[in-house]
Amino acid sequence: METIVPIKGNVTFPITLDAGVWIFDDRKVDLTTYFSRTTEAIDELEEYTKAVSRHWSREIQEGATYPPTLKTEKKYEKEKVLTGTFGVPFAPFLKNAEPHADAATVVIETDEGEHTLSLPEARDLILGFSLNGKPLKENGPVHAYYGDGSNQTEPITSVKAFRIE
User: Fold this and answer.
1) Is 124 exposed, middle or buried (CB count within 10 Å of its CB: 0-12, 13-18, 19+)?
2) pLDDT digit string, tens, across residues 65-93
3) First CA to last CA across the chain, in angstroms?
């Protein structure tokens, strides 16, 4: 089974997406919790400051050596990757393909037919690539979820390509 999905059509740069390497992508999201979360504006500088403060406090309290809790956290993250259900946002890939100014729709080509979305709707897509730690082989390589989660239980499956028109 092929894990390559092209973005083609009315774009400046046709792109090939390889769902097999997304497990290493920092943009991946946990699909079991992604659609149930509430969205709120995030101040990146404030988040960075909080993270640095937590790290600094930890070093002051526990010392600069790596305590066993860090090993436990790493083990938890590895376990999560091996058993998790993940997806990645479609927007960065669409942005890198640079749709032409006259592009208005994205057609998702599947084994069963085609699904047409407007460009703004397509920007909100989440591409699922793993289920319970395993790649989507039978009806994959990716599943397309609407950004609002309305098709969370019935995603667009067997995605073969994205065609920009």
Assistant:
1) middle
2) 555 566 666 666 666 667 788 999 999 99
3) 27
